[in-house]
Every structure is written in C-alpha cells, then in structure tokens.
Amino acid sequence: MRSLTVLALLLQIKQLHGQPTVKIAFGSCSRQNSTEQLWNEVVNLKPDLWMWGGDNVYADTHDMQVMKAKYDQQKNNPGYQKLLATCPVTGTWDDHDYGINDGGKFYTKKQESKALMVDFIGFSKDNSIHNHDGVYNSHTFKKGNLHIKIINLDTRWFRDTIYKEYYFDSTANRRRYTYTTNDAGDILGKEQWNWLENELKTSNAALNIINSSIQVISSEHNFEKWANLPDARKRLIDLLKKYPNKKVLFISGDRHIAEISKMDVQGLPYPLYDITSSGLTHTWTEAWNEQNQYRVGELIMKKNFGVLEISLQAGKIEVIVSIQGKDNEVFIHRLLYL
After folding, report:
1. pTM higher than 0.90 for the full model?
2. Topology of 22-337 in CATH?
C-alpha cells in the first residue's frame, strides 16, 4: 500500500497532464434523525457523483406516511441539500429503507415504498426504473474520454427467504444468530438477471461499478450477504466471467463497517474487489474479531464514507480508494489496478 502523500502526488500529476479523473463518493446506513452526519465532509471533496448504497433512511414500517416523513427529514437536512447542489445522485436501497429489517420478496408495501425511494433519490421521469418491478437502475458518467457505468442492483424486491439460526456465544456470554444458506434461493429475479446481463453485454464503459447493498465477496460473517444464497452468488460471478473484458468493481454497504475485499477469479483477467462503506451515522457498538479471508488491509469500525478516484493509465483502470470519516480523516487509502 502506498502512502497517502504518494497517492495524493500521483493524482496531482495526472491532473497536471490533463488526464481525466472521475471522483465518486458513496455511502450507506444513514439515520435521518442523527445530529452528526458526514455531509460536509463529502461536499468538501467536490465529488462528480454521489451513490447511495442503501439504508438511506431507517424506516422499518408498513406505514407510508411514517416512511415519507423520514425521507423528507433526510432530504431536508442542510448538509444533504449542499450535496444535492454539488453533484448528481444515484443509488439503490437496502432493507431499512425498503421497509423491513432483513426483508425479502414478501414485504407487502414494496410498491408504495418504491415510489418514495424513487422520489427521494430524484430519478428523472424518463428513467427506466419507472417501467419495471424493483429499483434496479443504471447511470452513465463521462468525463473527457473516461466512461464509467453505474449499475445499481436491487437485492430486496425479488430475494428469496433466508432464515436465522440462534446460538449461545460463551465468549461474549450472549445469544447471537447466524443466517443459514438457501442453496437454491435467488436474489435478483429473472427480469433483473436479464437486465444485468444486457447492461454488461452492451457496456462500452472503461469500468462498470456494480452497487450491491449487501456484500458480494465477504462470506464468513453471520449476517446478510450474497453467500447466504450460494447459487445466486455463483451465477453473478459466472456472469462476469462470461464478459471478461467488461471490467467490474463492486461497492456495498449494510454492515456498519468499512473494508476492502479482493478475490482472484479463474476466468477473469483482473482481480475482483468489493469496497464496503457503512455507516454514515453509526457503526458497531462493540468490536469483535470478524474473519474475512478476502479482506485487504484493515477492518474499520468508525463512521465513514467511501471515495473512488478513477482514471485510465496505459490501458489499465487505476482506482484510488479511500475510506474517510469526520473531518475527512482517512482510514483506508489504497491504489487498485484493474
């Protein structure tokens, strides 16, 4: 890992030589009533784009008036208003803004909830998100000759059920749970799978950023993740292998931690990364040793958001990843090549 000083100098050199750099900020898990959010820190960086990774509010309700009030509170936050005046916004949802904790396809208010989410993020009237079930959507961003595609997945609307299994943790002297696997279960649903394949197949972007609210690569923890539905996870990775020249980077949220996961996949000519940033307003209240065989660097348990600074270097994608917090303190700073 290079030092912050060297990476900052590298970025300045690229800018002096006129090489376009796209700066994307992203984050998840934001309590709308929190008195201390990180919007000023995000705005200070002047991102080209903000991406919501889910849990954009904490609603957990079947009452749409309650949900709307929480979205309104978030949207009217003065710091968030500054962000809206700084850059465009895109993204997806997770369980708490979907409407039910760890919820899947059987949540009964998802149509009404979708309408509020679409209005909150501000998708245009001609966006195809209005024409199908779920909130999956894509967004393209161009800066000079650098073309980035954002693919926002919906991991809630179509997801099959997963079940909790409880056990007693003698070390912590408390009851805990883990999610069991649903081997044949699906996450995306037929229409979204077809859409995702078409988005990759037709993409001419230098980099495709897939925004999954839940972690794709990390597989050992007890909570929600793609590994709870292993057939779906395998299908996702196989789809990337089908289009090996379409370079993909995952981002995720949900976990109230930040980390970088890296997996080398046979059949992919580049390493697969998942950049997890969570949460904007709260993280773990207690620390424990969480295993992740794919983790690169540290596990961060402080309020945070992520930043990707993307450029083209001699035909390779160069991504400077940083995880930042209050007063723009940098917790992770790493250079990735794809």
Report:
1. yes
2. Purple Acid Phosphatase; chain A, domain 2 (3.60.21)
